[in-house]
Amino acid sequence: VLGKYHPDVAKQLNNLALLCQNQGKYQEVEYYYRRALEIYESKLGADDPNVAKTMNNLATCYLKQGKFKDAEALYKEILTRAHEKEFGSVNRKEFRLWSHCGVWKLVQGLQGGQ
């Protein structure tokens, strides 16, 4: 028995979330992705690629529901973690540059250009 905090359980939670997302069951999707994220972060650490993938999946779920602020916050967190891992801390100038990347244009476009 793997136990409820095993990374393989998180993988199956991601699969369940994808299935529910295809059915439009977004409350369940959020639950499964958050639970998978909790397992991955606690067992594999915040820098594990599975954490970023699951955060990205959750952000996509938020976009599909029109939860643009939530999606934007997750995308920024993913980018910040990746940048800090590769280059060190993010300064204000670099953070402002991200507002011009395709992700933010996508989010703004889905919001109707707000």
Q: Could you provide a short overview of the structure?
A:
With 114 residues, the protein is mainly alpha-helical.
Give an overview in words:
The protein is mainly alpha-helical and 114 residues long. The chain contains six helices and no strands. α3 packs antiparallel against α4. The longest helix has 20 residues, at 68-87. The N and C termini lie far apart (49 Å). The mean pLDDT is 84.
Provide key terms for this protein.
about 110 residues, mainly alpha, about 75% helix
Succession of helices and strands:
HHHHHH
Gyration radius, rounded: 15 Å
Number of helices: 6
Helical content class: over 70%
The structure class reads mainly alpha
Sheet with the most strands, sense and barrel status: none
The total beta strand count reads: 0
**Average pLDDT number:** 84
- Shape field: flat
Low-pLDDT sequence parts: none
Quaternary organization: single chain
Strand content range: under 5%
Between the first and last Cα atoms, what is the distance in angstroms? Answer: 49 Å
